[in-house]
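pasting input
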Amino acid sequence: MADVKKEHELIVTVSPHVRDEETTSRIMWTVNLSLLPALFMGFYFFGLKALFITALCIISSVLSEYFFQKAVKKKLTINDGSAFLTGLLLGMNLPSSLWSFNPFTIHVPIIGSVIAVVITKQFFGGLGYNIFNPALIGRAFLLISFPKAMTIWTEPSAAFFALDAKTTATPLGILKEDGLAKLIEVFGDKLNLYAELFNGHRAGSIGETSVLALLIGAGFLLYKRYITWHIPFSFLGTVAMLAWIFGGKNPETGKMLLFAGDPLIHLLSGGLMLGAFFMATDYVTCPTVRKGQIVFGIGCGALTMLIRIKGGYPEGVMFAILLMNCFAPLIDRAMKSDVFGAVKEKKK
Amino acid sequence: MMALATFKGGIHPPDKKDIAKNRAIKEAKSPQRVVIPLSQHLGAPCKPIVSIGQEIKKGAVIGEPGGFVSAPVHSSVSGKVIAIAEFPNAMGRMVNSIVIENDWKEEWTSLKDNPDYIKLSADELKEKVKAAGIVGMGGAAFPTLVKLSPPKEKPIDTVIINGAECEPYLTADYRLMMERPAEIVEGLKILMRILGVNKGFIGIENNKPDAIEKMKDAAKNEPDIEVCGLEVKYPQGAEKMLISALTGREVPPRALPMDVRVVVQNVGTALAVYEAARYGKPLIERVVTVTGEGIKNPANLMVKIGTLISDIVEECGGFKDSAGKVVSGGPMMGFALSTLDVPVTKGTSGILVIPEKGVVHAEEYGPCIRCGRCIDICPMGLMPSMLSILSEKGHYEDAKEYNLFDCFECGSCAFVCPSKRPIVQLVRLAKSLVKP
């Protein structure tokens, strides 16, 4: 047999011998893609500054990963899209006002990126080993280190080149400081408030404002089964429930009024949609078993509302997810998957 | 339409059955010499009872069972014993084997047609299965006699014939069901008689509607036998999954099908049981699917046990120029061969030739990103991600907390893993280094 391969030419590998086409980098790049509608809306409302900030975060994240991996002689993984994603998410979580030369705050996104990629991800062993969501640690670090610069919110407008736009407060900020009546007054009426929140025409971080755009991206990820309903829906459901129960205030006394809150305002504002669909669902830092993910989502929702209603910050999504990240390994340990046959024999 | 019977989890690899499914079973050429391993089954190896130079007939016993969990081996040709020594098997191990030079006379030991076989007692039928050296022909090669001898405290009420053939590419069972349905049904009836049960199932994946029709037709006068279509999903043909799909009973962790009163046998095994009961024919040949994008002429061959895979590849026209990997068995659970000079055994269901460009190289894998895909699809409800991480880090004992030994290595987790991690291999490594 002339064309029978010689023995040493046969390739020997372990089973299985067929593999699915899905790859880690394809997942990462698809998630990047799914964030583009929200990024575009950030650009639409906050102008080129929004793009500059996001680009700055992406470039510094990818370069941080590159130089760190070069320095410690690890395999370069910048093409897998995960450092890019960290940069993109961090950028979308920052106020566009950071693109400013007076006062000079351009270094802020760069510092955040380095913290996110080098300290949060690479120091813990790189992709797959980090405990916390890198982009969120980056943002948390910046919020604590640069509290003023991180809370200057620009009024949304479609003026792309305006460099000194008017500053204002976020809807959640207004809700916390001045109450619901004031918030409705700012937006004209309640219906308009909902509509503007849904479209994203409000002050906030670059990529968090447009619920519509975020839902388009999230729908795409759900359809592709890159994320499942477990975390986002339990997260959002808990927020809605707690907002309704504890979110109401007596307009006269300012005291809490049970079962009188407006869940929709809480659902549509802050970083909730971005956090619930794109950050809490980060594979590495959430539980892997579905039932544990529901617990994780409920925890995120409860902590978010605790901070929003009782805490010092108007928004709590970031800290809620980070706190729940700590519990992810524990949840996985406590709520292992159900082994086949371990439950009682079922009758058909 | 009623939902098809199935189990929770599982994957949908491309089935690729078109390559070989329309090739009718053909008798393979009798080889110059056969290498018959004395250990082709799960359990104790056989003891050789022939000596070098001895002339033997086709069907003669050449190795006697080495224990209760064992099965005799027979010569698949007539000829002369020329060697008794260690030869490699498909899994790369060296096994004591008997080499017989073919004299092409095809002289049988006595074969007797006994059309009244069904009137034999359960014990007499069981004796025939024992003498024929029948083992599970789906791949695991577990001695059939053992399955047919449940302890008294474990009564059996159902026999299932496994026609799922959920491994992609393979079509051996499909061809048998298409070509010899009546004999398979007879085999099932014999198994039911031996075990004294009156409920028989034949489970077939729904991608073989013509086989389902054939089997339904063959069993139409058998009120106790039900032919069921199953959802097309890997590993539908795994014993525990099949039992769950057809009866709703879940075999507990570390338990056997007999613990839920079921015995499962493969289609090929049922045919072998029939031939043993009727003719006293020992298990000396089996259907092997020769398939894959890398083989010139795919085929379903009736191959004599002990035929070298190199002979079969040659008979099928050899490799197309891009052949890279040759797998004994199916693509999900089969073994890649390092040499083609290994024999077909009782458990060899297929020979799969994968061209070089289709080969996934094992060394290119990344860290676990904890996406949870493997957990979603694990038919055993395990956490393969954790098993692979613990094994990778050397925490083999800890892997037991994650039910290491419940894994039956179906490979679904590694199939879906986006980081291409060799999860099954890491599990095997851990299993080999700790006690259950």
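fyi Confidence is low (pLDDT under 50) at residues 1-5 of chain A.
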